[in-house]
UniProtKB/TrEMBL annotation:
Native organism: Labrus bergylta
Keyword terms: Cell projection, Cytoplasm, Cytoskeleton, Guanine-nucleotide releasing factor, Metal-binding, Phosphoprotein, Repeat, Zinc, Zinc-finger
Biased composition (Basic and acidic residues): 41-51
Signal sequence range: none
GO cellular component, one term: cytoskeleton
Example of a GO MF term: zinc ion binding
Name of protein: FYVE, RhoGEF and PH domain containing 4a
Lineage: Eukaryota, Metazoa, Chordata, Craniata, Vertebrata
GO biological process: cytoskeleton organization; filopodium assembly
Length: 631
């Protein structure tokens, strides 16, 4: 526990039965325990200074703390931490919340956003600052005659419902805080201004908002320690035990919230380390492990430094960035846990190696030691096992549904069997994982499936429920009404993996690209067979989401090279849109132009042939295999 200067109410302390203890010091500025460590007292009351004897001998001479002194010390720590806690509550309530509310009342951002972020912090602050803290201060002032805290803490128990409400809202508050910090410059500026003040102690608003979540477990810890020192027959024991029983129940919920908030804080840290480019801050993503690793290149087995972030549902394979400030890593590949395998490998030249293979990519990795290798393999296998277990429960739930599902003819006429919430971990329609914040569980009233809000955002009258309007899933809505529902964002137009496209493309390879007069940047460009009139641009060959897409139909193609242009450059233009490209060589440029000139007319282009091979097989410096060795 933290160290504090402990203050006793008088020079003469009392035993727990009220009788006086031996006078330990003339000073009134320290507790008996503290004073015992500073001075020794003669029978005539004079103080002796510490001798210059070795520390071991001095410790042996120190009188052992009495039980009464230990109890006083715990009570003093409770008071000191309560003072610090009230200061934090005041910062949240009277500074952050008040300043943001003042700006919200001007119409800059919604008032409800501020209310939902800070929840009932005002009520919590009022209780602690006006009741609990003053009560503790009075009790410590009269400790000589009333050495007890159980009765004081019992006053806290009826107000623990306030903490339950705060903890329940915590995930939502963190999400709103992130959302509006990104969305509103004024919102962000107010928070940053307050965070830069001395009263914040160089800590973020999120850190301070965690204080109420952590406070209840703190009470539990201090009470347990207090009860260990408290005699069985002490009059305060009954009150203290009763308080501990109720506070421990509340602490269980707080500890769960702490684990969630710690995970979200870690996700935020990683998000910043990746340059805020990877969308990983999601309650369904659980951080597992991170660390440096070496990657063995496929061609020459040279080892290259890489960094891994392992989550419950994916692995981020990253390259360190050697720059002052800014992002620390660049994501090369995102590999899903679904279908992943991990095996140990043996290599005489490179010890401690293992292989990670997923649907997206295979990696041969080298750990720093045998212990490090064992740790990584264990983390991977445990993560894969848990993922498969959850997936299996999902499949079993689907199997059970198929056995008792309502037929199309009975849909809406007969009440369905509802799938239990705990039988599934993801939406039974779109397969997205559920979480307590952004993707909650809902039931389709027609088929009984557990679905997310996006997949249940339809209503129809159901005959079995007296033709009352009920929420149903997309499929049931289509069957019951004959109307087709738009799929929504099952997978965005840009959310197709580059590797998936590249494997069945008319043309793919690296091109330099810029829009209008911006600087050229290197992109992995793909014209897929299935969407042969669209050009997709990725930052890397293994990216799971394109940076942009260009529908080629109707564009004009200009391959004249101007004095300021790069060699082997060409342009696509339509109205005010101008896209500039540059190939590695003139030959590659002509192969691209051959495909693009057909696509802009609306015709289906053919794969250009080079020595009998499909154009997917680019030159060595332009192939996906080449990028594998360098990644």
């Amino acid at each position: 526990s933290s160290t504090f200067v402990l203050c006793s109410p008088s020079n003469t302390d009392s035993k727990r039965d009220g009788s006086p203890l031996k006078q330990t010091s003339k000073s009134t500025n320290c507790s008996p325990a503290h004073c015992a460590q500073q001075t020794k007292t003669d029978t005539d009351g004079t103080q002796e200074k510490h001798s210059s004897a070795p520390a071991v001998l001095q410790d042996a001479d120190k009188p052992e703390e009495t039980n009464e002194q230990k109890l006083f010390k715990i009570a003093s720590e409770l008071l000191q931490t309560e003072k610090a806690y009230v200061a934090r509550l005041n910062l949240l309530d009277q500074v952050f919340c008040t300043k943001l509310m003042e700006e919200a009342n001007k119409g800059t951002f919604p008032v409800d956003v501020v209310k939902n972020i800070f929840s009932n912090i005002c009520s919590i602050n009022a209780f602690h600052s006006q009741f609990l803290l003053p009560g503790l201060e009075i009790r410590m002032g009269e400790w000589a005659s009333k050495p007890r805290i159980g009765d004081i803490l019992q006053k806290l128990t009826p107000f623990l419902k306030m903490y339950a409400e705060y903890v329940k809202n915590f995930d939502n508050a963190m999400e709103l805080l992130k959302q509006w910090t990104d969305r509103s410059p004024q919102f962000k500026a107010i928070i940053q201004e307050i965070q830069s003040t001395d009263m914040c102690g160089s800590l973020t608003l999120q850190h301070h908002m965690l204080e109420p979540v952590q406070r209840v477990p703190r009470y539990e810890m201090l009470l347990k320690d207090y009860l260990k020192k408290l005699p069985e027959d002490d009059p305060d024991r009954r009150d203290a035990e009763k308080s501990l029983e109720i506070i421990s129940t509340a602490a269980t919920h707080s500890n769960s919230a702490i684990r969630k908030s710690d995970n979200l804080k870690k996700l935020m840290e990683i998000y910043e380390m990746l340059g805020e480019e990877e969308d990983i801050v999601n309650p369904s993503n659980e951080f597992i492990k991170e660390g440096h690793i070496l990657k063995l290149a496929a061609r020459n087995t040279s080892a290259m430094e890489r960094y891994l972030f392992l989550f419950n549902n994916m692995l981020l394979y990253c390259v360190p960035k050697f720059s002052l400030g800014g992002p620390k890593y660049t994501v090369r590949t995102r590999i899903g846990i679904d279908g992943m395998k991990v095996v140990e490998t043996s290599n005489e030249d490179y010890p401690h190696t293992f292989q990670v293979s997923g649907k997206e990519r295979m990696l041969e990795l080298q750990a720093s030691s045998e212990q490090d290798k064992t740790g990584w393999i264990k983390a991977f296998r445990e993560t894969i096992d848990i993922f498969q277990l959850k997936n299996e429960s999902f499949k079993n739930a689907l199997k059970d549904v198929e056995e008792v599902s309502v037929s199309n003819a009975e849909l809406g006429v007969r009440a369905p069997r509802w799938i239990r919430d705990n039988e599934v971990t993801m939406c039974m329609k779109c397969k997205e994982p559920f979480n307590a914040l952004t993707r909650r569980r809902h039931h389709c009233r027609a088929c009984g499936y557990v679905v997310c809000w996006k997949c249940s955002d339809n209503k129809v009258p159901l005959a079995y429920d007296g033709n009352k309007t009920n929420k149903v899933c997309r499929d049931c809505f289509s069957i019951l009404t004959g109307e087709r529902v738009a799929e929504g964002k099952k997978k965005g137009i840009l959310e197709i993996e580059a590797a998936q496209f590249s494997g069945s493309s008319i043309m793919c390879g690296f091109l330099q690209y810029c829009e209008k007069n911006k600087p050229l940047q290197k992109f992995w460009c793909v014209i897929p067979e299935k969407e042969c009139l669209v050009l997709y641009l990725y930052k890397a060959p293994q990216d799971v989401k394109a940076q942009c897409s260009i529908p080629l139909l109707g564009y004009s193609v200009d391959d004249t090279v101007r004095p300021t242009d790069s060699p082997a450059s060409f342009r696509l233009s339509q109205s005010k849109s101008i896209h500039n490209f540059a190939a590695e060589t003139e030959e590659l440029k002509q192969r691209w132009l051959k495909v693009i000139r057909v696509a802009v007319t609306g015709e289906v282009p053919e794969c250009p042939q080079t020595n009998g091979n499909n154009s997917n097989m680019m030159d060595n410096n332009n192939t996906q295999e080449a990028s594998t060795d360098s990644t």
